[in-house]
Write a structure and sequence with these properties.
CATH class: Mainly Beta
Order of helices and strands: HHEEEEEEEEHE
Low-confidence stretches: 1-27
Mean pLDDT: 87
Strand order of the largest sheet: 1-2-3-4-5-6-7-8
Strand content: 25-35%
Shape: globular
Largest sheet: 8 strands, antiparallel, barrel
Number of helices: 3
CATH architecture: Beta Barrel
Helix content: 10-25%
Number of domains: 1
Distance between the termini: 72 Å
CATH topology: Lipocalin
Structural class: alpha+beta
Number of strands: 9
Length: 196
């Protein structure tokens, strides 16, 4: 069996493809570092979104956004995401998160989150990355992203974080390879009603 080279135009296209994939500006970004360790007991509770990279699943969230985490007996983390719509109604989405072991970094802030039903938990595609890439020592401000840099959230324990801390977090995100210029601020109103 002999191998024949494709016609000249096709060879040129393949050559251009390989040249582009190896070009410095188009190479894969360096691995995204996560905070280690993250004490999930301290991380539990309610966080208010301050800013995010736009995404399709929050397209109807036009007011305050909050996430509440809790430790479960089975080792998973309960997740309740809530957001206010323009008319003041609330969207609630419940899920779970699990830790992803990182060799040499026990307790690293690398998690996966799932909002699909339990019977689909075995399907890898229902789990999404939730990586804690910055966390202050008091567990008051958290920056969460995904390794492909497509998703980013700035979270705070208070509904409205001061501007200096927002700018510092976004500068960190930019340095980590996120498109901080595309981040949108999360409105504080309409506000979410308290959890019952």
């Amino acid at each position: 069996m002999t191998f024949r080279l494709p016609p000249q135009p096709l060879r040129a296209l393949w050559g251009a493809f390989f040249a582009l994939t190896l070009a410095p500006g188009l190479q894969a970004q360096p691995a995204l570092a996560v905070v280690a360790p993250v004490d999930l007991q301290r991380y539990a509770g309610t966080w208010y979104e301050q800013a995010r990279l736009p995404n399709w699943f929050q397209r109807n969230c036009t007011g305050q956004v909050a996430a509440t985490y809790g430790l479960q007996a089975d080792g998973l983390v309960s997740v309740l995401n809530r957001c206010a719509r323009a008319d003041g109604s609330v969207i609630d989405v419940s899920g779970v998160a699990r830790t992803v072991p990182v060799p040499g970094q026990p307790g690293a802030g690398k998690l996966e989150v799932r909002f699909a039903p339990d019977w689909l938990a075995w399907v890898p595609l229902v789990w999404g990355d939730y990586w804690v890439i910055q966390l202050d020592g008091d567990y008051q401000v958290s920056l969460v992203g995904t390794p492909d840099r497509k998703y980013l959230w700035l979270l705070s324990r208070v509904p409205k974080l001061d501007e200096a801390r927002i700018q510092a977090a976004l500068a960190f995100a930019q340095a980590a390879g996120f498109d901080a210029a595309s981040v949108v601020r999360t409105p504080a109103t309409p506000a979410l009603p308290p959890l019952r």
